[in-house]
What does this fold into?
Amino acid sequence: MYVDSHCHLSFPELAQDLPGVLHRMRANKVVAALNICTTLEEFPAVLAVAEQHSHIVASVGVHPDYQDTEEPTIDRLTALADHPKVVAIGETGLDYFRLREPLEWQRDRFRTHIRAARQCGKPLIIHTRASSDDTIRLMKEEGAQEAGGVMHCFTESLAVAEAAMALGFYISFSGIVTFKNARELQEVARAVPLDRLLIETDSPYLAPVPHRGKTNEPGFVPKVAEKLAELKKVSVDQVAASSTKNFYNLFKGFRTTASEVS
It folds into this structure.
C-alpha cells in the first residue's frame, strides 16, 4: 500500500472530480493522503475534504510564493492546527525562483510557521526553491528540528538533503524523479536512506512518467515508488512499506483521526 504525502485535492483540477480521484486512488492501493493548504483563505475547503473522508488529513499554512493573501500569525496557525484532522504546518518555506529581493517578508513568514509548529507540536511541510542556503539557515536558527517535518517535492542537492536529514527531516520525492532529465535528482534519491524517504504527487502538478503532461492525482504515486525502487535496486514493496511507515511516524495524529472520522 502507498500514501501520498503531499497533494492538493482542493485545487479545481481535482476538486471538480473528487469522487473519481478518490476512487482511482483506492484502486491503485493508495490508502491515505495529506491534503495541503497554501493560503488561509483556502483552509476551510482543505479541511472540509479531510473531515469528509477518514483516509485524508490536512495541513494549514501559507505558501511562500503568495504575496496577496492573508498573512499568518503564530496564534492564527496554532488555533487552526488545533483540530484532529490537521496534522502539519505548511506548506511553508522559501521560494526565490520568481520573486526578487527584498524578500524579508517571505523569511518572516517562514519563521512564523516554524515557531507555530514548535508551539503546537506538529511537523512542518517545507518548500524550497532557489533558496536552499537560506532555508537551511532559518531552519537551524528557529529550531525547526524541534518540530521535525519533511522537505517536500525535493529537487535540491545531496548536501541540502543531508543538512535537512541532520535536523531530523524526511525527504519527499515527487514525479520529477521519474523525468529523464532529472539525473542529478535521481542520484540524490539513490543516496537518501529508505527510513528517511517519503513519496508524493504534489498533484495536480508534476505527473510522473508515463503520465507526464496530464493532470496529476494521488493514484499516480505508485509510479514514483516504482522509479525509486529502480534507482535504489530494491523492490517496490520495500519502498511502499518504508515510505508508508515513515509517513505514519511523522504525522502521528493521522491514525487517531482516521479511526474517529467516518
In short: Residues 104-120 form the longest helix (17 residues). The beta strands are 2-7, 30-35, 56-60, 86-95, 124-129, 149-151, 169-173, 197-199.
